[in-house]
Amino acid sequence: MNKKLVNFIVKKYLRFDKKNPFISISAILAFIGVCIGVMVLILSMAIMNGTAKEFERKLFTMNYPLTIHPKFSTISLDQELLNSLQKEFPHLKFSPFISSQAIIQSGETMSGGMIFGVIPQKEALINPVYKKALGDLNLDKFDIITGSGISDKLFLNPGTKTTLYFTELNPTGFSMMPKMKRFTFANSFTSGLNAYDKAYMYTSIEALQTLLKKEEGTFDGIHVHSDDAFADIEKLRTYLGNKASVVGWWQQNGNFFAAMKMEKTALFIVLMLIILVASLNIISSLLMTVMSRRKEIALLLSMGATSKEIKSIFLRVGTIIGFSGILTGIALGFIGYWLLDNFDIVTLPADVYGSAKLPLDLAMSDFISIIIGAVIIVLISSYYPASKATNIDVIDVLRNE
Length: 401
Fold this sequence. Notes:
Radius of gyration: 33 Å
Strand order of the largest sheet: 3-4-8-5-7-6
Order of helices and strands: HHEEHEEHHEHEEHEHEEHEHHHHHHH
Mean pLDDT: 83
Helix content: 55-70%
Largest sheet: 6 strands, mixed, barrel
Strand content: 15-25%
């Protein structure tokens, strides 16, 4: 193949055609379309990944990587099991808890939610939000830490006495009264998600053992922190056998993350159509070039140029337009990523999304998928006009043109 001839003609066809400006304009539009498509795909995938990871991080605050529950409601986990788990899995962090629904009252204002009895030192190791609220406080047995939504609603300040009503009932003569106890408000936490800030409360595990008449050293469950929850859940299940069940965060919030994954896939397909539409301009531009250069192509073929060389010329023209659009789109996408990541160009309502900063995280797998998809579309779009260029009837074209 005569590479010099091919390169010379490719350069000629890439120049702006003053006689047929619409051909060059169509090629420019194809370049811009591919460029914008790749850029938008990179930014969209980064935002989708960032949003998913941000919600995952927030959910981990109160929905721990792994949680151990009794197999049956009549059975409680005990200190002996906790000790054996800590000995068998020293790389994991365990925090036993007792939980109950409760209503908290201060003055005439009331708010409902979940209260957890925990061991402060153990809970602080796996819950950074609780750890921040705990600080250097030395909590007494009936001290309480609440979400900021509860403390704001009830106007609680450190040292304020508040009453908690539990769902368990106490018999009093001929009636049943809910269990109630005065607690001292110690501090509040802000998780970034209102659903938790308005519902979650923490106290000592001894307080709930006393109020709910639980035996000392028994728990409703054990929260587990793991750096590789998918692998550790199987190890824990094998070790625990029929003693207890283990639930992962992805099982507790499976529908939410499945919906986000489906939305991300749908968005990827829709935005890939932008590149597909832009590639139609590559096809139309090359086909118009073929039609306007029929005489030149016929002359080249009659002078000894091969069909392979003609096909290579138009394939290179199409791929140069498409690949330059892809590369420019990648550059603009990363510039946009850097701008959005370092400057508050887009701000979010923190009470809705849990963060005012736009979360960004471009996964390598998504980036590679974008590049592969764009390259395949460009190659297919360039191949069809290139193959049509070799189907010219040389004798007929030279006779009539």
